[in-house]
Write a structure and sequence with these properties.
The protein is mainly beta. The protein has 8 helices and 26 strands. Helices cover about 15% and strands about 50% of the residues.
Length: about 450
């Protein structure tokens, strides 16, 4: 049967209507998520971190493992100070810690790092690859920093949002720089981590995060598996909850033991009114941007006797006076600090005698004196400094070394000696890393007793 033109037009119209309805049912809604974080806003952040597993280390050349566990509880108020124009720009804030406590168990040992009351105000800066915590009120100790500098800094949460339009079920790879900042890694060599939009309701959007990361931390290789979920509040336009399982297998390195652990992290964010602890009147006279002094850490010699500030690239052995400098994954130098017996201040070693002692100590490793001089540090202590170039035996060739020797003494005759050892190829990395330690060194009590060595 041949159809007339009006009937054909009617059939086509019906087909288009029916077809358009079927096509519309297949179209998924597109969502765009933007962070609503603004300068001046204050959040209450509550974090619970639980870690279980083992440490890995060498004992007399043999591999050993010990059980370890960590429970860390944080409760702080975080005020946003500055938001960037670009998505990956610098974001700054300031925190007041209401609670910052941790319990660490390794073998039979137990540690409880915590913030001192005078350090409850903490500055925080999130850049493209790093998340930095520092104290405007004075240098933190390494244990204080360890108590609060955990994985997944709360300033980074909104950077987990997709950068463009997305539909439910769609995934995208997480940026390597963001992963480095979140996990405290020096570098991310390889990543399969992806985020997925799982659900959108009238109130929240829910996401999942999964994948593996290979990189370096404290100069050691690490393999991390991540499984997490997080939630975006459509009313406040902020990520307000995150839960994550972190499985890490890190090799032992030059400055820390290896670990084979599983961490469970939960973090909640609630917007609150500005508290008195973060009011303008409290903050207006403080330098809240990171400085060389506020980012340095405080080191106290084992058993007491002296303390100093140091670049946080230094890692201290808590059982001795040895510090090691780790620069972008490379062991760039070592410092040996020793307290000497108190001596008659009128009979201190001379610069010439000190040089002779250095030459004798180096023996066949001595090459040549490069510099020698006398000065005073911040406390007015007399400082002798001697720089030597030489070499130590190596395979296949000897290794060129730069040594920097210091002798410090106060007006009461307290003394300390510091030896910095740097391979010549690392002198640019090391730069002036010795200076903050020497300049800030203070004797806090007699090195041994009131004994005076008059030899």
């Amino acid at each position: 049967m041949k159809l007339s033109a009006p009937i054909i037009r009617c059939v086509v119209l019906v087909s288009l209507i029916a077809g358009s309805g079927a096509f519309a049912s297949d179209v998924k809604k597109t969502y765009v998520f933007h962070s609503g974080r603004k300068a001046g806003q204050t959040d209450r952040v509550v974090v619970l971190l639980e870690v279980g597993g083992e440490t890995k280390f060498l004992d007399k050349g043999k591999p050993r493992r010990e059980k370890m566990g960590v429970v860390c509880s944080l409760d702080y108020l975080e005020k946003t100070l500055e938001t960037p124009a670009e998505a990956d720009g610098v974001l700054r804030g300031v925190r007041h810690y209401r609670r910052a406590a941790a319990t660490v168990k390794v073998g039979d040992d137990r540690f409880e790092p915590a913030l001192r009351p005078e350090h409850r105000l903490i500055g925080v800066e999130a850049a493209q690859r790093t998340a930095l915590l520092y104290s405007p009120g004075g240098s933190l100790s390494r244990s204080e920093l360890d108590a609060i500098d955990i994985q997944v800094n709360s300033l980074l949460l909104d950077r987990l949002l997709p950068s463009g339009p997305i539909v439910v079920g769609r995934s995208w790879p997480l940026d390597k720089n963001l992963l480095a900042a979140m996990l405290g890694l020096e570098e991310v060599a390889k990543s399969t981590v992806e985020c997925t939009l799982k659900e959108v309701t009238d109130i929240v959007a829910r996401f999942e995060l999964t994948g593996r990361v290979k990189g370096r931390a404290d100069g050691a290789e690490t393999d991390i598996e991540l499984k997490g979920r997080y939630r975006f509040d459509l009313r406040t336009k902020r990520v307000d909850w995150l839960g994550m399982l972190i499985k890490e297998d890190r090799q032992a390195g030059d400055v820390a033991d290896g670990v084979d652990v599983v961490s469970r992290l939960q973090l909640t964010v609630t917007q609150v009114k500005e508290p008195k602890e973060l009011a303008h009147a409290v903050l207006e006279n403080l330098d809240l941007k990171p400085t060389a002094k506020s980012t340095c850490l405080t080191y106290e010699f084992p058993g007491g006797g002296c303390r100093c500030r140091y670049d946080r690239r230094w890692y201290a052995d808590n059982s001795s006076g040895v510090l090691r400098l780790m620069d972008r994954g490379v062991l760039a130098g070592q410092c040996n600090l020793a307290l000497l017996l108190k001596r008659d201040p009128n009979r201190l070693v001379s610069l010439e005698k000190f040089q002779g002692d250095v030459r004798k100590a180096l023996g066949d490793n001595f090459g040549a004196f490069v510099a020698a001089g006398q000065s005073a540090n911040e406390s007015g202590y007399r400082v002798l400094r001697v720089v030597v170039h030489g070499a130590v035996p190596g395979k296949p060739d000897d290794v060129p070394i730069r040594w920097i020797y210091y002798h410090l003494a106060d007006r009461q005759g307290h003394q300390a000696a510091l030896t910095f050892t740097i391979e010549q190829e690392n002198t640019d990395r090391f730069a002036d890393a010795d200076e903050p330690i020497v300049e800030s060194l203070r004797f806090v009590e007699p090195a041994s007793s009131d004994q005076v060595n008059r030899d």
